[in-house]
């Protein structure tokens, strides 16, 4: 994956957000009454259901649209979503698992060097933006991958993108740009 | 109610009252009964015109009032900040351009005022006039987050770029705010602003080199630098006794809470350098180091090199123990560590071995680290960002679910664990009712 260095960078996926539909109306009060691990929020009009394995939190709306967050991989998200759909089926709703889509993936990564953010932003204007008073990281948006990378001066990165592949490509893309602007760690 | 100042055209009396006819307002003379003026039935409809200003032809005839007000506000701010005419003209141009854009024409008046402030800010930065976003927020009396958001949007829409402002430039303006010259305070507490600025700049540069500045808000750092500079220029007991709180009270500036932490961090760095001073006999503590600040800043480059060298030798001496404690994932380290352990009886030979082993060990540490990469590099080097040195410990993550395909079978029993049995559901419903009724009874 990283062809231009001899160390492998650890990209840790911390959160995967996915949505799916049940194609039927859901009675939130019934779910709140008969489901365990459930929090009913009538003011917003949704129910939060937490699964133990995989560790997932789902927001369930009465229209049948469900958002699952907290998974650590795309497959885990799918498994969690299916488990949730089975659970709703058992509660008595005519659920059909459809339109499953991974919407967002968040990953963190750490460079083995520190980065000089001012130089990095100057070299990559206007794709990179850095306002030290507003946020301590420089933001780099990769348009064709639809990914956003936030670079901190310690060398840590947080990457968000529509899927795991785009996140990995984003890290690969940005590595040489960061390597040019590295800062010696001990000074 | 007597309507003052009006005269009846019929009889000339000023005895005019409000005598509304049904829903139509009327002013009637009491003496002769003639109607002086009638209501607004034929005039502008209630609540403004049907067609909004921006859609009428008045736009071309009369410039928008809010635009004029905004331009006045820009000029006012430039005058308060005492900016030169070039910056003012640039700010006015930017404001005119930005005002016409979609995202700024139909927004609240507060946002338009914030936009005026952001135009001033950008113009200052482009003409190398040091100013911070914090100053602009306090001028506008607006939330810094809002100001930041408007600023980012404006930059994107106008497609302009602003060069960076370094703290060392801003600090001069900051120090001038402090009222501690001889005319404001007692003689032993007074300080000349130029001298104070010079020392504060040196402290800020040192902070920048040692990872204190990056990622932090500038104002608390400037405050900490000013305070330490003031204390160290004349470290008599009056000054040393004064806490940051009292100092800010004395200088009539508002204290920033994070400044206390920055002072501690700066003192730590100064201690590390102070220990390298060859003529210091006593142990350098945080209280004692203030007296040495002048010397430290004068020779800081030499002291930095010496401190790094001392740190390296200290690391090398620790190296035999460090490599012994490392996890056995490093293949080469244990064999080298056993070699070095055999000869640790003689300290000098351990040092000889280690330089060659240490670099290899370090590289392997880098490549084999999976558990805690960050704290290690924070503890290995002399200066590291505080967020790395005191890294948040990640709670032990549950072992990742192995080989998940997403399409596996889901057994009934696991699903049943998420569903209440009918008896449980009934009990839950009863309990909820009981809780809600007792809650409403109590409240």
TrEMBL record, chain A:
GO biological process, one term: DNA-templated transcription initiation
Pfam family, one: TBP
PANTHER family listed in its UniProt record: TATA-BOX BINDING PROTEIN
Name this protein carries in UniProt: TATA box-binding protein-like 1
UniProt entry tagged with the keyword Transcription regulation: yes
Main location: cytoplasm
Database matches in SUPFAM superfamilies: TATA-box binding protein-like
Database matches in CDD domains: TLF
Family note: Belongs to the TBP family.
Keywords from the UniProt entry: Cytoplasm, DNA-binding, Nucleus, Transcription, Transcription regulation
GO molecular function: DNA binding
Subcellular localization(s) per the UniProt record: Cytoplasm; Nucleus
Superkingdom field: Eukaryota
GO CC annotation, single: nucleus
Species whose genome carries this gene: Poecilia reticulata
Keyword check for Cell cycle: no
From TrEMBL, chain B:
GO molecular function, one term: TBP-class protein binding
Pfam families (UniProt xref): BRF2-like_C_cyclin_rpt (PF21886), TFIIB (PF00382)
GO biological process, one term: transcription preinitiation complex assembly
Region (Disordered): 324-416
Biased composition range(s): Acidic residues: 406-415
Cell compartments where the protein resides: Nucleus
Cellular-component GO terms for this entry: nucleus; transcription preinitiation complex
Family to which this protein belongs: Belongs to the TFIIB family.
Function according to Swiss-Prot or TrEMBL: General activator of RNA polymerase III transcription. Factor exclusively required for RNA polymerase III transcription of genes with promoter elements upstream of the initiation sites. Contributes to the regulation of gene expression; functions as activator in the absence of oxidative stress. Down-regulates expression of target genes in response to oxidative stress. Overexpression protects cells against apoptosis in response to oxidative stress.
Name used for this protein in its record: Transcription factor IIIB 50 kDa subunit
